[in-house]
Amino acid sequence: DYIVHQEKPSGYISQENADWLVRTISRDGMVDSRTELELLVHVLEEAKSSPSRLCVYALEQVAHAVVDGKGPLMIGGVLVPGLIA
User: Is there a contact between 7 and 43 (Cβ–Cβ < 8 Å)?
Assistant: First the structure.
């Protein structure tokens, strides 16, 4: 909420805040947990505008799960590369 609504102008994510968010929720270029991925998606949903790099980063997280079958989208099971269920 802070980087979307508390910073001025409200609803706009600066590149600096986007970079901070990515650094905070990722290691080795990947988010570590489902909660962190949900946070990233929620921030993008709430924002009126965000840097394109942040949007690309979020899409890369989903693509990594679908293409490679890895990442925080697993729920106690196994992701099958290339399969969306």
Answer: no
**Can you spell out the DSSP letters for 2-41?**
IIIIISSSTTB--HHHHHHHHHHHEETTEE-SHHHHHHHH
Where along the chain do its domains lie? 2-68
| 72 vs 35: CA distance, rounded Å | 8
Instruction: Taking residues 48-63, report their average pLDDT.
Output: 92
Q: What is the pLDDT of residues 62-77, one digit of tens each?
A: 888 777 777 776 655 5
Residue 23: count other Cβ atoms within 10 Å of its Cβ. Answer: 9
Lookup: tokens for 4: 């979307």
pLDDT band at 56 (very low <50, low <70, confident <90, very high): very high
Residue 50 burial (10 A CB sphere; 0-12, 13-18, 19+): buried
Side-chain-side CA neighbours of 50 within 13 Å: the count stands at 22
